[in-house]
Amino acid sequence: MNSSTTTRSSSRPRPLTLVAGLVTVLVSTLISAGGPAQARPHTTVDDSSHRVAGATNALADTPIGFASVNALGFNGTTGGAGGPTVTVTTGAALEDYVGRAGPYVIRVSGRIQISDMVTVVANKSILGVGSTAEITGGGLQLGSTTRPGNNVIIRNIRFTGAEDDSISVTNKAHHVWIDHNDLSDGYDGLLDIKRESDYVTVSWNHFHHHSKSSLVGHSDNYPADIGKLRVTYHHNFFDGTDQRHPRVRFADPVHVFNNYYRNNALYGIASTENAGLMVEGNYFENVAHPIYVGYDKSGPGRVVERNNRYVNSGAPQTAGTVVEPRTYYPYTVDDPATVPATVSAGVGVGRIGL
Fold it and tell me: Which InterPro entries is this protein grouped with (predicted)?
């Protein structure tokens, strides 16, 4: 069933108490599409958290979401802060600096040709200069089995023509921020997050001219991902890409808010293998299957959706309970009606003055 401007939410009202303009939230509460909540310690969240703030968020120099969380011995995600700043213009120089020990701020200038996957190790900021920084022909792999890819920031870079993934967050990499990039025309996934990686934020990226956008979870037969893969997707533009926006296995929670979905031929989001997704404040336009619970040969996951906008799109599937994202971090949800304009104007390269 299609709707021109229908907003659907299948979850029951959350157990919120309004006090003098503040909302008291059960921080670790499970939000349900129909089940009971479990009471845990309280925190107080400003009720202004649902005001429009997209223009401000687009220019932020620190991440929102899971990459901001203090955990595993890290105080959020800082990348190469405190290390030397270098500018690279060749594939050889890029591979050299991203593989060095210690923190580095690596500025990518112009178009750099690489092949296969270049391994990025811990404490790196990889930042495109201006609006013309491009990595083509290959991709960046965060971490190897012997050298972790923790605390990495990738911003303001165009990725094209990768032989495998454009960006692969893997091998237990944690605290990663992927922000304001343009990803298209790869071979496999444009951005895959897998193999026990954790505390990742994907924000203000433009995904286009490709089929498989973003996978979370290695495979149905990799249960080591259970308890990991906490990822936030916000203010991304999934522009005519076919599927995986994201497709998720095992993770709980994955938080998907204020993204713009347009003309996604196969589906928008898929929750499988008992993953838990909170999907809120997004705008789906011409998406016949905006949210799937289970997909292909993968068993069903869990989805709670709230305050999304579906325009000429089908009905979302929902099921089960999901951990409330505010258990981990504060965040602001834009009015979903503003998402197409705000996201279109803010995503991709050349927006943040690097």
Answer: PbH1, Pec_lyase, Pectin_lyas_fold, Pectin_lyase_fold/virulence, PEL
CATH 3.90.1150.10 fits 6-346, yes or no: no
Three-state secondary-structure class, residue 49: helix
Mode of pairing for the β-strands spanning 6-8 and 308-311: antiparallel
Q: Which member of 195, 244, 262, 351 is catalytic? A: 244
User: Tell me, what DSSP letter sits at residue 313?
Assistant: B
Number of helices (H) and strands (E), helices first, in the chain? 3, 33
Tell which residue, 291, 235, 239, 302, has the closest CA to residue 268.
291
> Which whole number is the average pLDDT over 14-22?
33
Q: Is residue 324 a contact partner of residue 29, using CB atoms and an 8 Å limit? A: yes
CA distance 285 to 240: 10
The sign of the CA dihedral 274, 267, 305, 47 is positive
> Would you call 51 a catalytic residue per the annotation?
no
**Distance in angstroms between the alpha carbons of the first and the last residue of the chain:** 44
Quick one: which of 105, 109, 107 has its CA closest to 132?
109
pTM, to two decimals:
0.86
Nearest-angstrom CA–CA distance, 52 and 42: 25
pLDDT tens digits along 120-157: 999 999 999 999 999 999 999 999 999 999 999 999 99
Output the six-digit token pair for 242: 């076919």
Q: What secondary structure letter does DSSP report for 27?
A: T
